[in-house]
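Ticket 4471: requesting a sanity check on a complex prediction with zinc ion. Repro inputs:
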Amino acid sequence: MNIRRLFSFVILLALLFAMPVHLFAKKEKDKITVVLDPGHGGKDFGACENGAKEKDINLAVAKRLQELIEKELSDVNVVMTRSDDRYLTLQERADVANNNKGDLFMSIHVNSIDKKTRGREYTRGSSVYVLGLHRDQDNMKVAMRENAVIELESDYKEKYSGFDPSKDESYIIFEMAQKRNLGESIRVASDAQNELVSTAGRSNRGVRQAGFWVLWATSMPAVLVELDFICNPESVKFMVSDKGVDKLANSLLNSIKKFVERRI
Ligand SMILES: [Zn+2]
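Returned structure tokens:
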């Protein structure tokens, strides 16, 4: 009798040891990784006007958004491409997103218009971009300006497979961009766009498509937000104020909340 009990006990112990440890550990719920990319930084200032630098506004809004996500969305892990005033190439930004296996990439920028354009000081509003071939010249110009940072790299033609951000014909590659993630990117872009209007009170310039290198190089749903225009003094006043930063960040937070709801 005792021997049989001992035998059963040994068998039970053997079975327990044979079972993978993770079956006993309470499995930690997989977190959703959101990569925030404050555009520009360091020697790359982005657009500058009305006493403001684009790189600073982008960083302030992204850092506030990071705080809000960490406070309100326990299922989300935030990765920042930069948390201070440093220069990063577009490829390095995409590498951060891809290496961290991001579920969503959100690049944050401030818009501007050609200095020769009349009435530019009255141009206002938010637009959120997804990757694609621009439908008009305005969209292409925005992508050209945001891609121009590539030219700060001496060997950019080799590194970016011959892509020249200032040449029209380079943009043809984005026509082929049947990105797997386009549908979800458009959903996030629409939510962010609506929120920037309803929560942050920005004028609505709509969801648009254009050839942004950084969206091309990330392998996940990806959007690029143009918060408002730096050539408009009123818009700048809003974007550099604490209240403005908070409202802009909250708008983007709400769009990320909807993204997370779809994932859970
Ligand atoms: Zn920018």
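Notes from triage: Residues 22-28 have pLDDT under 50 and may be disordered. Leaving this open until the requester confirms.
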